[in-house]
Amino acid sequence: MSLHSLYVDLNSYFASVEQQLRPELRGKPVGVLPVMADTTCCIAASIDAKRFGVRTGTPVWQARKLCKDIVFVQARPAAYVEIHHRIVAAVESCTPVGAVLSIDEMACELMGSDRGETNAIALGQQIKRAIYDQVGEVLHSSVGIAPNRFLAKTASNMQKPDGLVVIRQNELPQRLYGLKLGALTGIGRAMEPRLNRLGIHSVEQLCAASKNTLRQAWGGIEGERFYAKLRGEGVESAPTQRASVGHSHVLAPDLRDPGSALAVLYRLLHKAAMRLRHYGYCAGGLSLHLTYLQRGNGPAHWSDQARFSPHADTFKFNPVLAQLWQRRPPDPAPILKVGVTLLHLAEHSQITRDLFDPDDQHEGLNSVLDQINQRYGPNSLYFGGAHSGRGSAPMRIAFSHVPELQVESDG
Ligand SMILES: [Mg+2]
C-alpha cells in the first residue's frame, strides 16, 4: 500500500484539443503555432506529427521538411483553458485533484485502499475513461502512479501516448536507470553540468550519490529533498500542510443577490466537506468570506469564522454556515464572490469525540452522499439549501491555479 500519488498528463494537449474541436484534423500531423508565420516555432505537435520528429519548439521551416503534409493551425488559448477546466472536473468525478501543475497536468493524492496497486490502476483507467466520456474521445493522457508525486510525474513520462505506468517502491532505484538525467523534474539545463562536474552522468550514478553530494550539487537542502524523492520519500499531503480545505467562487451577474449567494455557499461547503472526508480529516472551524462589488472604490470584503469540536459532518457544518451568514452586516452592494473554508484540520483517527456528542449518527449518511456524488457526478445528491446554487459552482478547485495560459510548451 505504498502508492501515494497519481499523476495525469494529457498527451500533445493543444494539438489534441484542436483535433477534438476540428474532427477533420484527426489522425493528421498538426503543428500549433502562436501566430501564422513562417518565422515562428511550433508550440505543440500532434501525436501524429511527433512520429515525424516534430516537437514543441521545432521551427516551421524544419517541421515542413520533416513532414511535408503537416497542417499548421493558430493556437486558441481560450479554448485550451475551457477544456482544461472540463478535464479537471472529469478527473474530480473520479477522485479529488490535489494540485493542478499546468494546463495539462494534475496530481491526485491516493488515499485508503487506492494506495494498493490493483485499485490505483483501476482508478487510473477510470480517469482516462472519464476524460474520454466527459470531455473528448481524442484526448489521450498518460497516467503515472508511484510512492510520491515526483516519481508519479516521472512515471507519466515513461509511456506516451495513452500510458499507464506504475513505479513500485521495491523497484527503486533500478526502475529509473533507463532515464536520462534531464528527464527528471528538477534537473534542468543548469543542473546537469553541475552534476557532471561531480562525476554524475547517469541516473544510476545519481541514485548512487550520497546525500552530501546532492546537497553540494543543489547548493543546499534542495539536494537532500531530491535524494529523498528519488527513494520514494517526501510524500506531499495537500490538506495537512495547508491545514484547511476551501473553495471560492465568483458569482455570475444573475446570482449576486443574497439568496443565490447563500445557495452557492452551501454548494461550496458541501464540496469542501466531501474532500475533507475523502482525505480522512475533521475540521474544527469554518470561515465564510464575501467580496462585494463596489464600483469606484474597488471590492469590499467581509469575513468571519467559528470554532467547534472537530468533525466531518456536513449536517453539522450547515447550521454553522447559516449562523455566520446571519452575522454579516447589511450588504453594501451586490455580492461578487463567496468563499468557505474548513479550518483547523486534524486526522479523523486522532480526534477524541466530543463528550457531549458521542455518537456520530450522520457518518453513514455522509458516506452515502459522497459515494453517490462520486459515482454520478458532483451534483447528483445535494442539500435543499444548495438547490438554486446547483450548477453555478462546478467542480473547479483548480480555477485559481491556471489564471493565465502559458503557451511556451505543453510537453
Ligand atoms: Mg502533456
Automatic annotation (TrEMBL):
InterPro entries: DNA/RNA_pol_sf, DNA_pol_Y-fam_little_finger, DNA_polymerase-Y, IMS_HHH_1, Rev_trsase/Diguanyl_cyclase, UmuC. Residues 5-188 form the UmuC domain. Pfam families: IMS, IMS_C, IMS_HHH_1. The keyword Transferase applies. The keyword Nucleus does not apply. Keywords: DNA-directed DNA polymerase, Mutator protein, Nucleotidyltransferase, Transferase. GO terms for molecular function: damaged DNA binding; DNA-directed DNA polymerase activity. GO terms for cellular component: cytosol. GO terms for biological process: DNA repair; error-prone translesion synthesis; SOS response. Belongs to the DNA polymerase type-Y family. This is DNA polymerase.
